[in-house]
Structure to design on (290 residues):
């Protein structure tokens, strides 16, 4: 079992909360510039089912006990950006720490219009899927905005600050990996957190190595970390490009029997009720079988 450094665990835990929140994004409508501690009170809980209510309570509890998390500012909501309004595809936003400039780029999992895109990618029919490229375009716009903002504060800066951490759950995690390798601003991405996201096709992984060269490719994948529920059935799909010593498994807090198979892949399955990670463990037998 790989040892998870405390600082990395704390940062990844915040990203796990933000990824859970993004599955509720159709239930809140706030302006860019809103602090997370205010955003959670704008979620329409009346329309939430039992599953989503747990997501909401996890986020609210985590925000109440983590001041840094609550102070993060939501920006760059894709649903309000030209070219990304169709929420059947990309759902993304950023959260920024005003004091340090730290920016978390969060990409949600598979939307209703992305299932065929998943198939094309895993089957190796294409090395760059339409939805991966769209997410990459979104991050390019975000990075350009960060660069322009940095230049306004300090004109000597010519590139985005290296405090950008990108993450996603499920297909969002796959997109985050793709962007970390392929973004024109990849040098400005400090880390990538993949939460139960699938890997790449063998064809895509080989193409990326050839495209950028072995050294550049290795630099990109060394920035990646995988966080998985013990028996998740999505992250084993495809070829993992994340270093094995950067992968961490956690006990599923939701599954109580084989009939709970759908819950193996929920975005909160490795989170306790207060939003903390569950106990670290080894990869489960079902996940190994997949």
């Amino acid at each position: 079992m790989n040892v998870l450094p405390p600082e990395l665990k704390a940062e990844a835990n915040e990203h796990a909360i933000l990824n859970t929140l993004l599955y509720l994004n159709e239930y809140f409508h706030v302006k860019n510039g809103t602090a997370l501690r205010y955003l959670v009170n704008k979620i329409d809980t009346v329309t939430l089912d039992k599953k989503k209510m747990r997501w909401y309570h996890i986020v609210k509890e985590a925000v109440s006990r983590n001041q840094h998390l609550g102070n993060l500012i939501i920006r760059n909501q894709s649903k309000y950006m030209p070219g990304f309004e169709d929420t059947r595809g990309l759902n993304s936003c950023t959260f920024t720490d005003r004091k340090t400039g730290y920016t978390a780029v969060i990409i949600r999992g598979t939307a209703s219009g992305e299932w065929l895109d998943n198939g094309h990618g895993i089957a190796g029919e294409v090395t760059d899927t339409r939805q991966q490229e769209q997410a990459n375009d979104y991050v390019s716009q975000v990075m350009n905005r960060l660069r322009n903002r940095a230049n306004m504060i300090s004109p000597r800066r010519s590139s985005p600050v290296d405090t950008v951490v990108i993450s996603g759950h499920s297909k969002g995690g796959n997109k985050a990996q793709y962007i970390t390798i392929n973004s024109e601003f990849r040098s400005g991405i400090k880390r990538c957190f993949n939460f139960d996201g699938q890997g790449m096709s063998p064809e895509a992984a080989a193409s990326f190595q050839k495209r950028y060269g072995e050294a550049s490719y290795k630099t990109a994948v060394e920035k990646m970390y995988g966080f998985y529920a013990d028996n998740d059935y999505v992250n084993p799909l495809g070829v993992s490009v994340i270093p094995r010593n950067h992968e961490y498994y956690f006990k599923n807090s939701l599954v109580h029997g084989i009939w709970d198979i759908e819950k193996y892949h929920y975005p909160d399955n490795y989170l306790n009720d207060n939003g903390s990670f569950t106990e670290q463990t080894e990869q489960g037998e079902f996940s190994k079988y997949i």
